[in-house]
Amino acid sequence: MMIKFPAYAFLTGLYFSILQFSYLILLQINISSAYLTYMVITASWLTGSIIGLWLENLDRNVGVGLGLFCYYGVYALVSNMPFSSFTLALASVGSGITGLWAGRFFIFVLHQYKQVDRIFFHENNGFWVGIVTFFLGFTLLGRPFIFWAPMTLAGLLFSKHTWIKGENKQPSQ
Question: Chain-wide mean pLDDT for the chain?
Fold first, then answer.
């Protein structure tokens, strides 16, 4: 079973990176640029990732879709209620839910590919490219970038999920 997981892993890393930095910048623009904002979002993402390790029924499409839904929910919340102190707590819940697929991703890949070290290499490279892409995109395009980039990458992941499902001839996991 040789599925082209390196491209999928790279795209997933790119998606995680863009989404994490989009959360951070979105909250720094609309809530606070204090260290607390960074710490809360990072800790909640990591908590979601740890919980995602144990969610055996978390499907790829549901994981990405739920994370995207939470991101745009937080986007709408902080855009309509800037500088409200309770939005940071709600944003941390959204970030934690978004992080669920980050935890589940490697468990999924382990069962499908059996070579997690290579997949981690490609996912990590995607993450690094995502960091550079985010800062270039945000610098050149500003707020429209943090609105459109997560949706665009999620769309690519959804199409890749379909491709992997079709290639595998098995139901989605």
Answer: 87
pLDDT, mean of residues 39-67: 93
Residue 79 CA to residue 82 CA, distance in Å, equals 6
102 neighbors 47 (Cβ within 8 angstroms): no
**Cβ–Cβ under 8 Å, residues 147 and 26:** no
Q: Which amino acid is at 116?
A: V
- Separation between Cα atoms, residue 44 and residue 41, nearest integer Å: 5
Q: How far apart are CA 130 and CA 120, in angstroms?
A: 15
Q: How far apart are CA 132 and CA 128, in angstroms?
A: 7
* pLDDT grade for 168, boundaries at 50, 70 and 90: very low
Counted residue by residue, the chain has a size of: 173
